[in-house]
């Protein structure tokens, strides 16, 4: 039986994602008014927006109940990710990295929902008049974590 992975370093990675996410959101909240636009790069603005729903503003206009639904759901998922991370074996390092990124991002958005009732988004990528839905560092970490999880699954299927 393979030796268990030591999760401490991966939990620190999750904490790093969480801290960077929260620091970036606090900075944006201190500097920007809602919908204020600061061009950053061609095709990228910083723009403070709030999302009361899930990804792509799903359920954002549902009347308020979604806050508690997403707090509960995110809490359960985060607990599941933590337990999963604690049970990994030494050879599952890529899975551990992906879980750490997803966990850190999920907790970052959870803190927003508990504190503010909504998630702070501020990264606005666009092409001409078409804008991708605004997002934040937590969302980015979750996306990269899921991509790494798919890669880990693919690598595992090949072995």
Overall description:
- This protein has one domain (7-57, 64-158).
- 58% of the residues lie in helices and 15% in strands.
- The longest helix has 24 residues, at 8-31.
- The chain has helices spanning 8-31, 65-87, 93-116, 137-158, and strands at residues 37-41, 44-51, 119-127, 130-131.
- The chain is α+β, with helices and mostly antiparallel strands.
- It is built from 4 helices and 4 strands.
- The chain has a 4-stranded antiparallel sheet.
What key phrases describe this protein's structure?
4 helices, hydrolase
Uncertain segments: none
Q: What pattern of helices and strands is seen along the backbone?
A: HEEHHEEH
Q: Count every beta strand, where a strand is a DSSP E run of 2 or more residues.
A: 4
Overall SS class: alpha+beta
Instruction: Using the CA coordinates, give the radius of gyration.
Output: 17 Å
Helix content: 55-70%
Largest sheet: 4 strands, antiparallel
User: What's the mean pLDDT score?
Assistant: 92
Q: What is the general shape? A: globular
* Terminal-residue CA separation: 17 Å
């Amino acid at each position: 039986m393979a030796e268990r992975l030591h999760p401490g370093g991966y939990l620190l990675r999750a904490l790093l994602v969480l801290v960077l996410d929260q620091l970036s959101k606090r900075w944006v909240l201190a500097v920007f008014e809602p919908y204020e636009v600061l061009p950053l790069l061609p095709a990228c603005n910083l723009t403070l927006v709030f999302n009361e729903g899930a990804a792509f503003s799903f359920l954002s206009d549902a009347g308020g109940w979604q806050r508690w639904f997403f707090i509960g759901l995110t809490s359960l998922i985060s607990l599941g990710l933590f337990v999963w991370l604690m049970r990994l074996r030494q050879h599952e390092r890529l899975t551990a990295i992906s879980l750490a990124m997803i966990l850190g991002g999920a907790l970052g958005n959870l803190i927003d929902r508990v504190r503010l009732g909504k998630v702070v988004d501020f990264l606005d990528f666009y092409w001409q008049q078409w804008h991708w839905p605004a997002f934040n560092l937590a969302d980015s970490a979750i996306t990269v974590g899921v991509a790494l999880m798919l890669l880990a699954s693919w690598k595992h299927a090949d072995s």
